[in-house]
Predict the structure.
Amino acid sequence: MTTDGTADDYSALRDMVLQFLAGNTSRDLRYPLEGELLRLFGEDDDTPASRMLDRLAQYTPGNLAYLYSDEEMVGHFQRFLCWLDRHIAEQAAVIDPARAED
Protein backbone atom coordinates (compact mmCIF):
# COMPACT_ATOMS: atom_id res chain seq x y z
CA MET A 1 0.00 0.00 0.00
CA THR A 2 1.18 3.54 -0.56
CA THR A 3 2.66 5.54 2.24
CA ASP A 4 0.48 8.63 2.05
CA GLY A 5 -2.76 6.79 1.29
CA THR A 6 -4.75 9.67 -0.18
CA ALA A 7 -7.58 9.19 -2.65
CA ASP A 8 -5.34 10.66 -5.36
CA ASP A 9 -3.13 7.58 -5.06
CA TYR A 10 -6.04 5.41 -6.11
CA SER A 11 -7.61 7.58 -8.81
CA ALA A 12 -5.75 5.94 -11.73
CA LEU A 13 -6.69 2.46 -10.48
CA ARG A 14 -10.32 3.48 -9.98
CA ASP A 15 -10.45 4.99 -13.48
CA MET A 16 -9.08 1.76 -14.98
CA VAL A 17 -11.64 -0.35 -13.12
CA LEU A 18 -14.41 1.89 -14.45
CA GLN A 19 -13.04 1.50 -17.98
CA PHE A 20 -13.10 -2.28 -17.57
CA LEU A 21 -16.68 -2.17 -16.34
CA ALA A 22 -17.56 -0.02 -19.37
CA GLY A 23 -16.42 -2.87 -21.62
CA ASN A 24 -12.74 -2.16 -22.26
CA THR A 25 -11.09 -5.56 -21.70
CA SER A 26 -8.09 -4.95 -23.96
CA ARG A 27 -4.52 -5.78 -23.01
CA ASP A 28 -3.78 -2.07 -23.25
CA LEU A 29 -5.94 -1.65 -20.15
CA ARG A 30 -5.38 -4.96 -18.37
CA TYR A 31 -1.58 -4.69 -18.16
CA PRO A 32 -1.53 -1.18 -16.65
CA LEU A 33 -4.37 -2.26 -14.34
CA GLU A 34 -2.27 -5.15 -13.07
CA GLY A 35 0.67 -2.78 -12.66
CA GLU A 36 -1.38 -0.33 -10.61
CA LEU A 37 -2.69 -3.13 -8.39
CA LEU A 38 0.87 -4.29 -7.83
CA ARG A 39 2.15 -0.78 -7.17
CA LEU A 40 -0.54 -0.01 -4.62
CA PHE A 41 -1.10 -3.42 -3.03
CA GLY A 42 1.82 -5.63 -4.09
CA GLU A 43 2.92 -6.32 -0.53
CA ASP A 44 -0.56 -7.22 0.71
CA ASP A 45 -1.65 -10.84 0.97
CA ASP A 46 -5.20 -12.19 0.91
CA THR A 47 -6.93 -8.91 0.25
CA PRO A 48 -9.49 -7.99 -2.40
CA ALA A 49 -6.63 -6.41 -4.38
CA SER A 50 -4.44 -9.51 -4.28
CA ARG A 51 -7.42 -11.65 -5.28
CA MET A 52 -8.10 -9.33 -8.24
CA LEU A 53 -4.51 -9.83 -9.37
CA ASP A 54 -5.02 -13.58 -9.24
CA ARG A 55 -8.25 -13.30 -11.20
CA LEU A 56 -6.70 -11.06 -13.84
CA ALA A 57 -3.98 -13.66 -14.34
CA GLN A 58 -6.72 -16.21 -15.07
CA TYR A 59 -8.72 -14.03 -17.44
CA THR A 60 -8.69 -13.65 -21.20
CA PRO A 61 -11.58 -11.89 -22.92
CA GLY A 62 -13.82 -14.17 -24.92
CA ASN A 63 -14.98 -16.69 -22.31
CA LEU A 64 -12.24 -19.25 -22.89
CA ALA A 65 -12.57 -22.57 -21.08
CA TYR A 66 -10.95 -22.91 -17.64
CA LEU A 67 -10.59 -19.15 -17.29
CA TYR A 68 -12.88 -16.55 -15.76
CA SER A 69 -15.68 -15.54 -18.11
CA ASP A 70 -16.32 -11.94 -19.08
CA GLU A 71 -19.45 -11.88 -16.91
CA GLU A 72 -17.59 -13.29 -13.90
CA MET A 73 -14.87 -10.66 -14.22
CA VAL A 74 -17.43 -7.86 -14.40
CA GLY A 75 -18.95 -9.16 -11.16
CA HIS A 76 -15.53 -9.39 -9.51
CA PHE A 77 -14.66 -5.86 -10.61
CA GLN A 78 -17.98 -4.48 -9.38
CA ARG A 79 -17.31 -5.94 -5.94
CA PHE A 80 -13.70 -4.75 -6.07
CA LEU A 81 -14.84 -1.20 -6.91
CA CYS A 82 -17.10 -1.20 -3.83
CA TRP A 83 -14.18 -2.37 -1.70
CA LEU A 84 -11.82 0.18 -3.28
CA ASP A 85 -14.22 3.04 -2.55
CA ARG A 86 -14.47 1.94 1.09
CA HIS A 87 -10.69 1.57 1.27
CA ILE A 88 -10.17 5.09 -0.14
CA ALA A 89 -12.59 6.51 2.44
CA GLU A 90 -10.84 4.65 5.26
CA GLN A 91 -7.43 5.91 4.13
CA ALA A 92 -8.73 9.47 3.92
CA ALA A 93 -10.09 9.17 7.47
CA VAL A 94 -6.70 8.00 8.73
CA ILE A 95 -4.82 10.78 6.95
CA ASP A 96 -7.26 13.62 7.68
CA PRO A 97 -10.03 12.74 10.15
CA ALA A 98 -11.63 16.19 9.79
CA ARG A 99 -11.96 15.74 6.01
CA ALA A 100 -13.61 12.33 6.47
CA GLU A 101 -16.42 13.95 8.48
CA ASP A 102 -17.40 16.19 5.53
